[in-house]
Amino acid sequence: MVTYPHAHILDVVGPLEVLTGAKYFLPEGPAPYDVELVAAQAGPVRTTSGLSLTADLGFSQAMEDTAPIDTLIVSGGHGTMAALEDKALLTFVRHAAKRARRVVSICTGAIILAELGLLEGRRATTHWWWCPILESRYPKVRVERDAIFVRDGNIWTSAGVTAGMDLALALVEMDWGHDVALQVARYNVMYMMRPGGQSQFSAHLVAQAAEDPAINATLAHILAHPGEALTVTALAARAGLSERTFARRFKDETGLTPAAYVETARVQAARVALETRPQGIEQIAGEVGFQNAERMRRAFQRHLGVSASEYRDRFRGAQVGGDQIRDGPS
């Protein structure tokens, strides 16, 4: 794990906690991951929280080791732009990437990979706030703004903070299997797993951001009653607004049309039902407002890239489910 001053502490420790946690669910033997934290020098590195982490090695020391690296991870955080000026860091990452089986970035760590040309022609993501910066500075990178994490060949990139833990959980599943990843997820009280292509913006997050009282109340109603007839006419009447005024204010507050938000909320409700309940897909589709399984299947394809039945298959035998990794050409 590569870090630097003012990296986000969770970008470092979140993924590492997930990876090292696999040891509790494997037979006794060597640790599944031998972790080293690398920075400008061995010793304390101050993070954005004000807390310091202790680097095991400095870049110059790490450069002396020519052994293969299984996974090279580059952390992110507010110090990323300053890190781009650190020639020793860039040199180390460039050389380490050549001997790594896979290269991973957490949050704005993608900008460091892009600076080194490692993301040219590849699909990648980063924290939503930084996606426009990644696009403008590195036009050869195919930025996927909404994805929680993206895999393109042997390079993995993730959105911000907790998305790095989702990515790490996907690595655990790849290395040690679904059952171990499931146990790690439960141990960390994590969702197993948010699909890699899932939007960084859930229906609940959108609702939290709304400030207009009428729209805020409408969003809460949609989330609580996804199975109702949530037409613009019905929602506008509930908000006490004309349809035209309601649609305009709704879009201003959420960035989505009412229909788009309703579909997002229904997909979210359906996912929870598919993960936690034994009822058939047709029944669940009706309960969350899709009316039938075919409509729900199409909505799942639009939002998650898999059908509802495929989504449920990832959860079979467990009450929490599997991941969707967007593979690129290897």
From TrEMBL:
CDD domains: GATase1_AraC_1 (cd03137). PROSITE patterns: HTH_ARAC_FAMILY_2. InterPro entries: Class_I_gatase-like, DJ-1/PfpI, Homeodomain-like_sf, HTH_AraC, INH-QAR. The keyword Nucleus does not apply. Pfam families: DJ-1_PfpI, HTH_18. Gene3D superfamilies: 3.40.50.880, Homeodomain-like. Residues 216-314 form the HTH araC/xylS-type domain. Transmembrane segments: none annotated. This is GlxA family transcriptional regulator. One of its GO terms (molecular function) is sequence-specific DNA binding. Keywords: Transcription, Transcription regulation. It comes from Thetidibacter halocola. The lineage of its organism: Bacteria, Pseudomonadati, Pseudomonadota, Alphaproteobacteria, Rhodobacterales.
